[in-house]
Design goal:
Keywords: Coiled coil, Disulfide bond, Repeat, Secreted, Signal
Strand order of the largest sheet: 116-115-114-127-126-125-124-123
Mean pLDDT: 78
Structural class: mainly beta
Protein name: Kielin cysteine rich BMP regulator
Pfam families: VWC, VWC2L_2nd, VWD
Helix content: under 10%
Oligomer: single chain
Shape: flat
InterPro entries: Kielin_Chordin-BMP_Reg, Ser_inhib-like_sf, VWF/SSPO/ZAN-like_Cys-rich_dom, VWF_dom, VWF_type-D
Subcellular location: Secreted
Length: about 1650
């Protein structure tokens, strides 16, 4: 191109690139859409076409383009200026730092509030003022004034640098200097201080280092300079490009745009302009090819609009003609259906569904057989007509296409075990049928049961049995041959003579065989070395392997709480229990509670939706996951959950928040991800939803040949105008040109267009406001403010909520959001409850409210007085009036002392009472006089000595006596003065003397020696030596001669001499006798018997004769015969063991009680529990137990338990805790039908029954008879369910929808009348839609009602669960389900809201009726009414089973009718219901699809969600439908794991150890069945598995907690005998 276009093109490209670069720069400026490059190129392409018509005016031809370029250049200049301003503003913002709203200062590593003061060191004081730290030196401290260095003065704490390499610090007059550290990494340039610094770039980057400051920018450090460059991207040749996440260069977006419509990559489509063009999108390019039409089969094909190829208009065959799409039945073959399709006839066989097993043949002219009769064995039968059978004992008839047979009736027989005769149908009494075998009359047969031999006989249909005992052969001694006896026979076993054994089942008994007689006795136990031993099961003697304490058994090392005193923590160690007091942790609430048998107070829990949450716990609301709750002091405080900001611009509404980026919400509509849609307000833009974000692009317009194209209203692309005229403007003025838009002066909201001289005006279209509360703008709703509750609010304005007093609302860009008013934390510890927020204008203290300034008594201490001042509570001792006494007394129950008594040093005295002084009890006496105590010393006795000394109580005492120059201590006795014959004593300082009394003498001749006082007898004299009377001696060499000085009746004493007598050497053999040695008189024994020397005086020896005991006395052995104790046994039973002197007995005879006691056994006297006796070798020894002094706390009672001697203290009410309730001592209750418990002295003791093994057949299942612990086998049951709004799945599997809101028969035994189950429905949600409200079960005269909230009444009386009424029914609560068991095998499950399930054994097959169907195995005839007729519609069927309502207030009920709630709810509700119910067909339920088809439940789910409407009720409806399908899956043996974090969540009390399980064990492990093997427990379980909270593996359930098996209370197991359970506590 040689003209101006060639010169302009480079300029255009340059400006366009500048515009693109500026628009993508970080400035973020967005200009109105400039003319695109494609538009400019379009002008270039149009130039040749126009050159022929405008050849004479080339300048005019390019003038519009030049004007556009000038405007584009001006816009580029303006864009550069705006970007410069933006960069300056960004740099300013980056230099800013965020500060807190209130000014704070930073110092000493922490933040200081405004006005705070602190000292960084001892010489400096700092203060925070206006967010700035001001520090000054302290005055009056000389050492803090500063430092001097090189002639310069520095302040205390100042840092300075005397040179470039040194840093100094002045502190308290001392200067400390350090060298500046050199950096390890790069630095800008080396210096004198750091000569080896490594050069680098700012930011710590080394020379040559490369890094990425942004994902698509690479920077390099070169010679101290940072050089950065962006990515180099290849040029793209596509319509639209985008940059993928994590990539730097753009790529072509897959897909094409053709004729204004976008197409995905690989899509194939027809051209909208030419239907004969087949196009495809490949690699972003559209390729089109013409379509080849096939030859037409008809003579006159027709070309229809929008089609490329002609098609046939109809079909012709045999002279008949049919239109395209018409269907007809082939003549002569009613089972052949034909259809005309574009001139072709297609035929197919009609499919007939088999509704019954033996349908009647089709009627003439029809195809399918009917169930109004039977066709069997080539013959037709009418319904009700008898049908022959091969069994002569049964009678059959045709019933609606099926054959029903029943046995022939038999007359009753008068015997219990009638037999059967071949060829006869009825049993007769001519024989017996017993345990499945036939016996003839008079026949005898034998059975063996449990090792016993049983002999039975049949007599005329009656069987009688008796047990046969095996004879024991007697022992005989034959005259000749070997001896076979003696031997012992015990329990059928033979034992040889002398053998010892332990009998089976009696581990504590030892037996032996003596002379053919078995002798058995108890095994003797030695006392265990611990205080609390345990008698283990099967063991004879107690052991220390565990502790038995207050009736409970604890393992060694186990910690537990004392059952009698919950404030004592105990530990079992080596069989001994040691206890100590419990330390209670501090509580965090103002009103802690203490429960019964609870030591430490704790904060109350919260109960929300029948779930328990611990104080302080944060949790999601059980029924509304969009609410977050917190438990505080027993109340659950809930508020809407805060929504995080969505990561996309146009998210869809999620469960709680609008944050679902898997689609787009744009212009008031919702679009799935990847959807294309037109712009809601601009028809010329096409939009696409991409992961929550919306991208809109303008459509491309074809090139035009006219110089000035115009854009018509409602069109997207300009068109070439026709020659036309202008239009007059309203109000005069310059006329408007053709195609000119203008507005009317009086109505700016209307826009007019001049078209060929005529004016057409229309109101400006208002786009949908993207806000929820727009205000009315000049023409359209505007989001620059809010219109809320009839008032205007500016954007950003906060205002109190007009509807909720404690909520604050915010208007933001046309939408109003309200939330509870944020309460600032109260500045006081006990704020009062204000209207919205806690306020300090009063006090709330321990649950009571008080005004500010109010005084009130302390609720915790009655003698304290508290005052409320501005939210603060101060408590102190209540002031008392001043008293005029010095030692007042505070009586019990009073707060102030009185002068009516005295309290003196801890001692209480009444008025006028005298008592010893507590400070000096021995020397002072005190007297109480009107509240004052006066004390005085006791008077001293006068001292009777001249020089007393101070003694006790400082009284004068005499401690010694001075006489004849000698001092004698007080109390000493001494002789008087010589010759006085007196005996003196010093007493209290005085000497008292008495004359000696001389003893009388029996001798006539008495001598008084010189200086003596009393006379004495004369002595004996032998060989010049004197001997006193009574003294003996050996006169000569003969050691056997002894002389003694003896007094004589008359005359002096004389010597009497005689030979000594030798003692008898008892027990000394003759060979051991030794002759006396020198100076010895008597012989001795060589054995130890003779060693009676002075060193052995008092010793005892045992001589060979056991009946003697010898003692060494007076150098002689004195032997004494032993006395034998009295024995209690007869003389014939006594025996003397070898080496013993006295006889013994093997047992003792207690004559008073008439019984015998084994040796070593001890017992208590039955008449006196304090006497304990024991048997020792036939001798009864008893001792009396002494009881220690017992002092019980106030209110406690002294009790003596049976069999114990001493009393003990018992609490006033020794109750037990069971499931959070207090149970009185002695009360019994039933935990379940297998377990009964009782409260014994504060301890729960339980008995649990174990069932015998149960084995049911393949067509049987265990069932529970009410009141029985052990199940029995019944025919396998079938179930019927009502769920949702409501839907009924019958016993035979048919799904019905019925919306009546009255009472109806759900399931009934219509033949035997055993039971009837009724349901009462209630209107909920939309009009005409009902839900199950309650269930009534009628069992004879008893009516059980299962109500909302899992409440149960029996005959109108509320009952607590579990409830038993033998033998009719048993009702229990398992997890979240109420289960009713009734006698005939009926089981009803009720979830307490809307879902009920009825199970009956298959023995009721064919005799049921009601909404659950007839249970005959065929679903097609379930719509039978009470008259037995099939009804045409489900509504007519449901209304036919209506019954009168039960007791209670009357209400208006409506009959059911055919309702389609989705039609009334609209398309959007149906679409949303389909999407939400799609989870039924998704992967969580996929394993169940093959056993339970999901389609009926999916339809029911959509039905329910349409009926429920939007909101939280829809979530409950969805969960009901999903749970109903999951329940059927569990019955079929598949357990789907379908719940999610936000889908039908079930909360479990984690603090009690529970976890959720979709199908946990229906009979879980408890403390009462943990001894039963799992297989046996499952075999006996009669409950279905239901979702709920279970205990994890390894733990057992007990009183609503998961605990370890070791923590269970002791359970005594019983056999097959069923204990009759008493009522539950409180029942």
């Amino acid at each position: 191109m040689a003209g101006p276009p060639a010169a302009l093109l480079p300029l255009v490209l340059q400006l366009t690139s500048v515009a693109v670069a500026s628009a993508t720069d970080g400035g973020g400026v967005i200009l109105p859409e400039p003319p695109g490059l494609a538009d400019i190129l379009d002008h270039q392409q149009q130039a040749p076409a126009r050159s022929s018509s405008h050849a004479g005016a080339p300048q005019e031809q390019w003038r519009p383009l030049e004007e556009r370029l000038e405007r584009l250049e001006a816009q580029m200049m303006e864009l550069r200026e705006q970007n410069k301003e933006l960069q300056v503003r960004v740099r300013q913002l980056e230099s800013c730092e965020c500060r807190p709203a209130s000014p704070q200062c930073w110092g000493l590593g922490r933040a200081w509030p405004e006005g705070a003061r602190w000292e960084p060191d001892t010489c400096t004081a700092c203060v925070c003022q206006n967010g700035t730290v001001h520090c000054d030196p302290k005055p009056d401290l000389p050492h803090c004034h500063g430092c001097s260095h090189n002639g310069h003065t520095y302040g205390n704490g100042e840092t300075f640098s005397p040179d470039a390499c040194t840093t100094c610090h002045c502190l308290e007059g001392t200067i400390k200097c350090t060298q500046k550290p050199c950096p390890r990494g790069p630095c800008p340039e080396p210096g004198t201080c750091c000569p080896h610094c490594e050069p680098g770039c700012p930011g710590g980057h080394r020379d040559g280092e490369t890094w990425q400051p942004e994902p698509c920018v690479i920077c390099t450090c070169q010679a101290g300079t940072v050089r950065c460059q962006g990515p180099s991207c290849a040029e793209l040749n596509c319509l639209e490009s985008y940059t993928p996440p994590g990539e730097c260069c753009p790529v072509c977006r897959p897909g094409c745009e053709y004729e204004g419509r976008p197409y995905e990559e690989g899509a194939s489509f027809l051209s909208s302009a030419d239907p004969c063009l087949q196009c495809s999108c490949l690699r972003s390019l559209v390729r089109c090819a013409p379509i080849k039409c096939p030859p037409s089969p008809c003579p006159e094909p027709v070309l229809r609009p929008g089609h490329c190829c002609p098609t046939c208009q109809g079909c012709t065959e045999g002279g008949s003609r049919w239109d395209h799409g018409q269907e007809w039945t082939a003549p002569g073959d009613p089972c052949r259906i034909c259809r005309c399709l574009e001139g072709h006839i297609q035929c197919r066989q009609r499919e007939c569904s088999s509704l019954c097993p033996y349908p009647a043949r089709p009627r003439p002219g029809t195809c399918c057989p009917l169930c109004d009769g039977c066709f069997l064995n080539g013959r037709e039968y009418r319904s009700g007509e008898p049908v022959g059978s091969g069994d002569p004992c049964s009678r059959c008839h045709c019933a609606n296409g099926s054959v029903q047979c029943e046995p022939l009736p038999c007359p009753p027989v008068p015997c219990r075990h009638p037999g059967r005769i071949p060829g006869q149908c009825c049993p007769v009494c001519d024989g017996c049928e017993y345990q499945g075998h036939q016996y003839q009359s008079e026949e005898t047969f034998r059975l063996q049961e449990r090792g016993r031999c049983i002999r039975c006989s049949c007599q005329a249909g009656e069987v009688s049995c008796e047990e046969q005992a095996c004879p024991v052969a007697p022992c005989t001694l034959p005259d000749s041959g070997p001896q076979l006896c003696p031997a012992c026979v015990l329990d059928g076993e033979e034992f040889a003579e002398g053998v010892q054994w332990e009998p089976d089942g009696q581990p504590c008994t030892a037996c032996s065989c003596h002379d053919g007689v078995p002798m058995c006795g108890a095994v003797l136990c030695s006392p265990p070395p611990c205080q609390h031993p345990t008698q283990l099961p099967g063991a004879c003697c107690p052991s220390c392997e565990s502790c038995t304490y207050h009736g409970q058994v604890y393992a060694n090392g186990r910690n537990f709480t004392d059952a009698d005193s919950p404030c004592r923590a105990c530990r079992c160690e080596a069989g001994t229990v040691r206890c100590s007091l419990v330390d209670c942790p501090p509580t965090t609430c103002a009103r802690p509670q203490s429960g019964p048998d609870q030591c430490c107070p704790r904060c109350p829990d919260c109960i929300l939706e029948e779930q328990v949450f611990v104080d302080g716990e944060s949790f999601s609301h059980p029924r509304d996951p969009c609410q977050e709750c917190r438990c505080r002091e027993g109340h659950a405080h809930c508020q809407p959950r805060a929504c995080p900001r969505a990561p996309c611009a146009h998210p869809l509404p999620g469960t709680c928040c609008q944050n679902d980026c898997n689609g787009c919400a744009f212009g008031g509509k919702e679009y799935p991800n990847g959807a294309d849609f037109p712009h809601p307000s601009d028809p010329c833009r096409q939009c696409r939803c991409l992961s929550g974000s919306v991208q809109c692009l303008s459509r491309r317009c074809p090139p035009l040949s006219c110089p000035e194209p115009v854009l018509l209203p409602g069109e997207c692309c300009p068109q070439c105008p026709a020659t036309s005229s202008g239009c007059p403007r309203p109000g005069g003025g310059v006329p408007a040109r053709h195609l000119e838009h203008f507005s009317q002066p009086d109505d700016p909201c209307r826009r007019c267009l001049c078209l060929d001289g005529s004016v057409s005006c229309q109101r400006l279209p208002c786009p949908p406001a993207p806000c929820s509360h727009p205000r009315q703008g000049p023409c359209c709703p505007s989001c620059d403010g809010c219109l809320y509750q009839g008032k205007d609010f500016a954007s950003g304005e906060r205002f109190p909520s007009p509807t909720a007093s404690c909520h604050v609302c915010l208007c933001w860009e046309g939408s109003v959001s309200c939330e509870p008013r944020a309460c600032a934390p109260a500045q006081c510890p006990f704020p009062a409850r204000g209207d919205c927020c806690p306020a300090c204008d009063g006090c709330e203290y321990l649950g009571e409210s008080y005004l500010s300034g109010q005084e009130f008594p302390d609720p915790r201490e009655p003698c304290n007085l508290c005052t409320c001042l501005g939210g603060f509570v101060t408590c102190g001792r209540q002031p008392c009036e001043p008293l005029g006494c010095s030692h007042p007394l505070t009586p019990a129950g009073h707060c102030c002392p009185t002068c009516q008594g005295c309290l003196y040093h801890g001692v209480t005295a009444a008025h006028g009472e005298t008592l010893p002084d507590p400070l000096d009890p021995s020397c002072s006496l005190c007297t109480c006089q009107e509240g004052s105590v006066r004390c005085q010393k006791k008077p001293c006795a006068p001292a009777l000595c001249p020089h007393p000394s101070p003694g006790p109580c400082f009284c004068p005492v005499c401690h010694s006596c001075l006489t004849q120059g000698q001092e004698h201590q007080d109390g000493a006795e001494f002789e008087g003065p010589p010759g006085s014959c007196e005996w003196c004593r010093c007493q209290a300082g005085q000497v008292s003397c008495v004359r000696l009394q001389c003893p009388p003498l029996s001798c006539p001749l008495q001598v008084t020696e010189q200086g003596g006082c009393c006379p004495r007898c004369r002595d004996c004299e032998h060989e010049g030596r004197k001997y006193e009377p009574g003294e003996s001696f050996q006169p000569g060499a003969d050691p056997c001669e002894v002389c003694i000085c003896e007094l004589q009746p008359e005359g002096p004493p004389s010597l009497q001499c005689h030979r000594r007598q030798c003692p008898s050497l008892v027990g000394c053999p003759a060979s051991q006798l030794l002759p006396p040695g020198p100076q010895h008189c008597c012989p001795t024994c060589a054995q130890a018997l003779s060693n009676c020397t002075e060193g052995l005086l008092g010793s005892e020896v045992a001589p060979p004769d056991p009946c003697y005991t010898c003692q060494c006395q007076d150098l002689t052995w004195l032997c004494i015969h032993q006395a034998c104790p009295e024995l209690s046994c007869p003389a014939s039973e006594r025996h003397t063991p070898p080496g013993s002197c006295c006889p013994e007995c093997r047992e003792c005879v207690v004559e008073a009680e008439g019984r015998r006691v084994a040796d070593g056994e001890s017992w208590r006297d039955p008449s006196n529990a304090c006497i304990t006796c024991a048997c020792h070798r036939g001798r009864v020894e008893c001792h009396l137990e002494e009881c220690p002094a017992l002092s019980c706390p106030q209110g406690w009672a002294k009790v003596r338990e049976a069999g114990s001697c001493c009393e003990r203290c018992q609490a006033p009410a020794q109750s037990c805790a069971h499931e959070g309730r207090a149970v009185a001592s002695g009360e019994r209750w039933a935990v379940d039908v297998c377990t009964t418990c009782s409260c014994v002295a504060g301890t729960v003791r339980c008995q649990s029954q174990r069932c015998p093994p149960l084995s049911c057949g393949p067509d049987e299942a265990p069932a529970l008879s009410p009141g029985s612990c052990c199940p029995r086998c019944l025919p396998r049951p079938a179930s019927c369910m009502a769920f949702g709004d409501p839907h009924y799945r019958t016993f035979d599997g048919r799904l019905l929808h019925f919306q009546g809101s009255c009472s109806y028969v759900l399931a009934k035994d219509c033949r035997g009348g055993d039971f009837s189950v009724h349901v009462t429905n209630d209107n909920r949600g939309r009009r005409g839609v009902a839900w199950t409200q309650e269930v009534a079960v009628l069992l004879g005269d008893v009516a059980v009602r299962l109500l909302q909230g899992k409440e149960v009444t029996v005959d109108g009386r509320p009952v607590a669960l579990p409830f038993l009424q033998e033998p009719l029914l048993y009702v229990e609560l398992r997890r979240r389900t109420v289960i009713l068991h009734a006698q005939p095998g009926l089981q009803v499950l009720w979830d307490g809201q809307s879902q009920v399930e009825v199970s009956v054994p298959s023995s009721y097959r064919g005799q049921m009726c009601g909404l659950c169907g007839n249970f005959n195995g065929f679903a097609q005839d379930d719509l039978q009414g009470p008259e037995g007729l099939l009804l045409p519609t489900e509504a007519a069927f449901g209304n036919s089973w209506q019954v009168p309502e039960g007791p209670g207030p009357s209400r208006i009920c409506s009959k059911g009718r055919e309702v389609d709630p989705c039609r009334a709810a609209g398309y959007r509700a149906r679409r949303e219901a389909n999407a939400r119910c799609g989870v039924l067909k998704s992967s969580p339920f996929s394993r169940c699809h093959s056993v339970v088809p999901p389609e009926p439940f999916f339809a029911a789910c959509v039905y329910d969600l349409c009926a429920c409407g939007p909101g939280s009720l829809a979530d409950a409806c969805l969960c009901d439908a999903l749970e109903a399908y999951a329940s059927h899956c569990r019955q079929a043996g598949v357990t789907p794991a379908w719940r999610g974090p936000t889908l039908c969540v079930v909360g479990c009390p984690l603090d009690r150890g529970f976890v959720f399980d979709e199908c946990g064990p229906p009979c879980p492990r408890t403390c009462f069945n943990q001894h039963i093997p799992l297989g046996e427990l499952a075999a006996h379980c009669v409950r279905p598995c239901v979702p709920g909270c279970q205990c994890p593996a390894g733990l057992v359930e007990h009183e609503a907690h998961c605990i370890s098996p070791e923590a269970c209370p002791p359970v005594q197991l019983t056999g097959d005998q069923t204990p009759r359970p008493p009522p539950s506590p409180g029942q």
